[in-house]
């Protein structure tokens, strides 16, 4: 699921920055739809699993990250070309 979220965030130009962390995680800085300068920091473990997410309001779940960043899997499915 985290791979899909990151792929979707890149396709929607939500990823502002990607940083390696000393603990081996990859950190993604994601833009929010509700504020110009605010962001969400999302960490992915070296094994590709979700580690944590942090916003101004504290710790966030993946669902909260998607909502705050305006991401939706439904929008991706409807935008995909028909086979």
Enumerate how many helices there are, as a single number: 3
Alpha carbon gyration radius: 13 Å
Total number of strands: 5
- Poorly predicted segments: none
Number of domains: 1
What does this 3D model show about the protein?
It is a single chain. Helix content is 30%, strand content 31%. The mean pLDDT is 88. A hairpin with a 5-residue loop joins strand 1 and strand 2. The chain has helices at 2-11, 62-69, 73-79; strands at 15-20, 26-31, 39-44, 50-55, 58-59. It has one domain (2-78). The longest helix is centred in the N-terminal third of the chain and has 10 residues, at 2-11. Strands 1-2-3-4-5 form a 5-stranded antiparallel beta sheet, with helices on one face. It is globular, with a radius of gyration of 13 Å. With 83 residues, it is an alpha+beta fold.
Structural features:
31% strand; alpha+beta; 5 strands; 5-stranded antiparallel sheet; 83 residues; 3 helices
């Amino acid at each position: 699921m985290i791979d899909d979220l990151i792929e979707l965030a890149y396709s929607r130009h939500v990823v502002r920055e990607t940083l390696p962390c000393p603990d081996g995680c990859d950190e993604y800085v994601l833009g929010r739809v509700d504020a110009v300068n605010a962001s969400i920091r999302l960490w992915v473990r070296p094994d590709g699993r979700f580690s944590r997410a942090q916003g101004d309001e504290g710790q966030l779940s993946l669902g909260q990250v998607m909502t705050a960043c305006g991401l939706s899997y439904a929008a991706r499915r409807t935008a995909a070309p028909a086979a």
